[in-house]
Write a structure and sequence with these properties.
The structure holds 3 protein chains of 3 kinds. Chain A folds into 3 domains: about 270 residues, no CATH class; about 70 residues, no CATH class; about 60 residues, Arc Repressor Mutant, subunit A (Orthogonal Bundle). In chain A, about 35% of the residues lie in helices and about 20% in strands. In chain A, strands 2-5-6-9-1-10-11-12-13 form a 9-stranded mixed sheet. The mean pLDDT of chain A is about 90. By secondary structure, chain B is mostly helical. Chain B has a domain of about 40 residues: Histone, subunit A. Chain C is α/β, with parallel strands linked by helices. An 11-stranded mixed sheet of chain C has the order 1-3-2-4-6-5-10-11-9-7-8, sandwiched between helices. The longest helix of chain C has 22 residues. Chain C is globular and about 70 Å long. The model of chain C has no long low-confidence stretch (mean pLDDT about 95). The chains are: A alpha+beta, B mainly alpha, C alpha/beta. Chains in contact: A-B, A-C, B-C. Strand 8 of chain A pairs antiparallel with strand 2 of chain B, so a sheet runs across the interface.
Chain lengths: ~475, ~90, ~475
């Protein structure tokens, strides 16, 4: 009897907060500056410099903790995590260890097969490392390289979110990540852009015989910069581990570097010695005691969260449509359009397909104008609609000029054009009448051409069939 | 309590201190004597005692999220052992 | 002696009056001290760096070379910072500047303030002005020797285990180790964050209070600082109502020199005459376990604080084929033996498998020490003992025996572990060498310590000028 295997997946996500300043100094936080222009004695770790926590970063972390239904610690402290690297100027990272700000939460992930609850072990605050660039140098030693360091990013606030290892499929892992991303974006914490590194994640994967609750050796997947890659990488790792076990082997604990173009994930170079981070309470900082009024104030800033909205919208649309709308950040626009009288399903289709293809930020769209456009979609030429759609994000966009270009559907205006087309193409008429019905499109196309695209193709099609059928 | 030569080397590596043989020898003896002395803390029954990591009872010290003026590049690099245009340069990591 | 200024006897308060009344210009005053430095520092070696131009309008000051001074080399007496010139002022340096003070130079110290004799300086030891064959105490021997020999009207030191109190005792100065958190550590080269505190070294108690007023107060750049209650300048000699406790374990410590004991007893008799009540008390655990606790906590924090000296952004850089080797060579070449010992000890105490037994346990012992002191302050306003069991010892006497050197601080360390203020005042001579009396009070009791110190100073009439310089 062959074993059925159950994957056990845990996620560790880093989200860079978009505060104005860094975590422990008031240098500007964010990209754009020339290298090493956003630094100070604190983030360059000059002797004697001391960290001062960013109040807003603490508040944002608590807000996220509340959104993830975490317990907000009555007392939280920072720890030092000690290791040497060029991008870590103090040779320790200020992080949180056994007394994090937020712990024991959950995020409910709706799926087509029902809801799955993913446990949040903790969400804590820490500082980011700086940026190393490894370069080749010319010189005597072939292949020698140097490392260049830019400390602008060093010290940016990061929230680390750790899930319980209770995710059991790549699909749920992917949906969790999408939902979490949407949550932090909506809370205004972060842009959470994978390609810019403002959201990063590592995945721990192991497998076990279904029904067992053992935890087997896990591997860590790093460097996945898209949700689809994550799903693909997880699938691949699950299959690899199952194959190893079924061949009687054992899985090594290792970190795998995901390369989407390769068939297998390559193990990363192992460290020369086992890491010993020597965590201890950061003596330059004092404990955090978030006051209940502060916590309640932050709770009040949280609106209806994505999970709840997917649940609600799935009552009207399919789960898939609801999921796409919410995790794509499209559902508020969708609701406005539907309130304006649009058909819910049609509005969802337009948003999930044509609109998404434009790459326009939904928040830049005026819902009222957008509603007018969607409402007249079937009455204006496709080209006009597409053109309009590509401008809905423009400031001051008005649907009016586009809607005004209604397609011609008046039979009295179209009939002379149709008659002329029929007269000009006797051969095709012959063939059509002889049973080649597929030529209908040819006639409609000719009429559309003659009318410069302004005719309503459905009306033209009806009229052509009537005239030829006679 | 004595510390072994291997432990001295392990700790020195963790702390990124190169040691020659003579230094390992010397530090092994000295550190063993010091560890013997500080190991005294183990004599106390501290099962109900909370740790003190800070002498004052202060909390919630933080700064507002308002940018200050950063250093100029020249100030940032003023003491740098090796500058490569606008980066700090180090041997390959 | 320039312009009739006797730098050996002039107090800072008197110097300030001379400048404010226009009798002496700020530049003349600065020059008088500079002349004294030129005359005596060759034999004392109190200074590591001299400033060549006065840059204020008030009276001069000397700063221990762990205090960052913008544009003035700051070495912490280490080779690793030999050419380091800060681009920013420590908060205490900025406060001195803001008060118009002119910087004379940077004073010698044990490397990174780790030591009790100033012999661990990478640039050679400082000599005690009372006897050039003896140490000035440490780590702040340079500041103490400078004030004692009239090379500066006052100076700042830093005290982690006794580095202000001990040199003040050995050189016949008044030295305050303030309540932890009352003086900013920002810009002060860190040794042990939860213990380091900058304090004034002066000729008399009023000067000390004046300087403490200037440097103390909450600093937004140091999260561990607090608002400080107003500091009363001491007047008069009435000690009625003051309850003095004499911890037996401090006053009868093993190895106490008879001359030290006699000088302290004589001072206590004066206190009684002035109206104070004196009663013996017990501080058993703090004295028995204080030193062990300190030599776990301080090196652990130091091992992390000194990790930033990696040859990347400032300081010494040695060669290496890769980053790791470069860092190992840099730290080997840049740190002296005592610093290496403490880094290794601290790394060990924090490392995996030893944390609980060493660092974790020491943190609990710290609680025990704090509680033991708290209990005594229910009954007493001040605890009095010698600052050190001996007077200044000969150069080289303990240099080869780290543990013997550590024991020098056995009387100053317990109060430091509890974050308590301690004032060392000279209370007499033993074989021609100054004896220090340590006054310890509850947190924020500096005004009380100054009141008692000032009264005793008047009653004792100690001549602060070293006999060989009179």
């Amino acid at each position: 009897m062959s074993t059925t295997w159950e994957p056990v997946i845990g996620l560790e996500i880093h989200v860079q907060l978009k505060t104005a300043t860094k975590m422990f100094c008031r240098c500007r936080n964010g990209y754009g500056g020339e290298p090493n222009t956003q630094t100070c004695p604190v983030c360059l770790a000059f002797p004697g410099a001391l960290p001062v926590p960013n109040r807003r970063a603490i508040e944002e972390t608590i807000k996220l903790g509340l959104a993830l239904e975490c317990t907000i610690a009555d007392r939280a402290i920072f720890h030092r995590k000690n290791y040497f690297y060029p991008d870590l100027p103090k040779a320790y990272q200020i992080s949180q260890y056994d007394e994090p700000l937020c712990a024991n939460g959950r995020l409910v992930v709706p799926t087509a097969d029902g809801e799955v609850e993913i446990g949040i072990v903790r969400a804590h605050l820490e500082e980011d490392a700086a940026k190393n660039v490894h370069v080749a140098t010319s010189g005597r030693i072939q292949g020698a390289t140097a490392t260049l360091v830019d400390f602008n990013r060093g010290g940016s606030p990061l929230v680390e979110i750790v899930t319980a290892p209770n995710i059991h499929s790549a699909d749920v892992a992917k949906r969790f990540l999408q939902l979490l991303r949407q949550t932090v974006v909506e809370l205004g914490l972060s842009d959470a852009e994978l390609d810019k590194g403002s959201m990063r994640f590592d995945v721990n994967v192991s497998v076990r015989p279904a029904g067992s609750d053992e935890l087997r050796t896990r591997t860590e997947l790093k460097n996945m910069n898209s949700f689809n890659f994550a799903a693909k990488g997880i699938e691949r790792e699950i299959a690899r581990q199952i194959k190893i076990y079924e061949n009687g082997g054992t899985v090594d604990q290792e970190t795998l570097h995901f390369d989407p173009t390769a068939e297998e994930s390559a193990p990363m170079r192992s460290k020369e010695e086992a890491q010993d981070y020597r965590y201890f309470p950061e003596p330059d900082l004092v404990p955090l005691h978030p006051a209940p009024e502060m916590i309640e104030g932050l709770r009040g800033q949280i609106g209806e969260l994505p999970t709840a909205r997917i649940r609600r919208i799935a009552n009207t649309l399919s789960f898939y449509d609801a999921d796409v709308l919410v995790t794509g950040g499209l559902d508020r626009l969708w609701a406005a359009v539907v309130d304006g009288g649009a058909d819910p399903k049609e509005a969802a289709n337009v948003l999930a397909n044509a609109f998404v293809a434009t790459g326009i930020n939904p928040s830049a769209v005026n819902p009222e104008e957008f509603t007018k456009l969607v409402a007249s979609r079937s009455e204006i030429p496709r080209a006009v609609f597409d053109d309009a759609l590509s401008h809905v994000g423009d400031p001051g966009f008005s649907a009016e000029p586009y809607v005004a270009q209604k397609a011609v559907s008046d039979a009295s205006a179209l009939e002379p054009v149709i008659a002329a087309v029929i007269e000009a193409n006797p051969g095709q008429v012959e063939q059509y009448r002889g049973g080649k019905q597929g030529l209908l499109g040819f006639f409609v196309g000719q009429v559309m051409k003659e009318t410069g695209g302004s005719a309503d193709p459905r009306v033209v099609s009806e009229l052509v069939r009537e005239q030829l059928g006679a | 309590m004595a510390i072994t030569k291997e432990e001295v080397l392990h700790v020195a590596r963790l702390a990124r201190l190169e040691l020659n043989d003579a230094e390992v020898e010397r530090f092994q003896g000295q550190l063993s004597a010091i560890l013997e002395a500080v190991g005294k803390v183990a004599e106390l029954d501290l099962s109900d005692v909370p740790p003190t990591s800070h002498p004052l009872e202060v909390s919630n010290a933080w700064g507002e999220d308002v940018p200050h003026t950063s250093l100029t590049q020249d100030e940032a690099f003023a003491n740098a052992p090796e500058r490569d245009d606008d980066h700090f340069r180090v041997p390959p990591a | 002696m320039s312009a009739g200024i006797d730098t050996l006897r002039l107090t800072a308060e008197e110097a300030l009056a001379l400048v404010e009344s226009g009798q002496v210009s700020s530049v003349e005053l600065w020059q008088a001290y500079r002349d004294a430095i030129n005359e005596h520092d060759g034999e004392l070696h109190a200074f590591l760096t001299l400033v060549d131009e006065p840059d204020g309008s008030g009276i001069p000051i000397a700063l221990k070379d762990v205090i960052s001074t913008r544009g003035v080399r700051t070495t912490a007496a280490s080779k690793i910072l030999e050419n380091y010139v800060p681009v920013f002022d420590a908060t205490v340096a900025a406060k001195c500047r803001a008060a118009g003070m002119t910087l004379l130079g940077k004073t010698n110290t044990d490397e990174f303030a780790m030591g009790s004799s100033t012999e661990n300086s990478a640039y050679g030891p400082t000599h005690n002005p009372w006897d050039l064959s003896r140490v000035p105490g440490g780590s702040g021997g340079g500041s103490a020797a400078a004030v004692s020999a009239g090379l500066a009207p006052w100076a700042l030191g830093s005290d982690t285990g006794g580095s202000v109190k001990l040199p003040s005792a050995f050189c016949g100065n008044v030295g305050l180790r303030p309540t932890y958190g009352t003086v900013s550590r920002f810009g002060v080269v860190a040794f042990a964050s939860s213990l380091d505190q900058v304090g004034p070294v002066t000729k008399n108690v009023r000067d000390n209070a004046l300087l403490y007023r200037i440097i103390s107060g909450r600093d937004e750049n140091d999260s561990t600082t607090v608002d400080v209650p107003p500091i009363a300048l001491p007047e008069g000699t009435d000690l009625k109502g003051l309850r003095i406790g004499l911890p037996r374990q401090l006053n009868e410590v093993e190895g106490i020199e008879p001359g030290v004991k006699a000088a302290c007893e004589a001072a206590l008799a004066k206190a009684e005459e002035l109206g104070a009540t004196i009663e013996e008390c017990e501080l058993p655990l703090s004295v028995e376990y204080g030193l062990a606790c300190y030599y776990l906590v301080a090196p652990a924090e130091a091992s992390s604080n000194l990790a930033r000296y990696d040859g990347v952004r400032y300081g010494l850089r040695s060669e290496g084929v890769d980053f790791r080797e470069m860092v190992m060579h840099t730290r080997h070449d840049g740190f002296g033996d005592e610093v290496k010992r403490r880094i290794m000890l601290g790394t060990y105490a924090l490392s995996s498998g030893y944390y609980d037994a060493f660092y974790g346990t020491a943190q609990k012992v710290r609680t025990v020490i704090k509680r033991e002191h708290d209990a005594l302050f229910e009954r007493f306003d001040v605890l009095v003992s010698p600052t050190c069991a001996t007077t200044a010892f000969p150069l080289g006497a303990k240099a080869q025996d780290p543990l013997a050197m550590y024991l020098t601080d056995v009387l100053t360390i317990p109060a430091n572990m509890a974050g308590l203020p301690g004032l060392s005042i000279p209370c007499g001579l033993s074989d021609g060498l100054p004896v220090g009396l340590q006054l310890v009070g509850p947190q924020f009791s500096e005004s009380t310590l100054y009141r008692l110190g000032h009264a005793l100073e008047q009653a004792i009439g100690f001549d602060v000028v070293p006999e060989r310089l009179r």
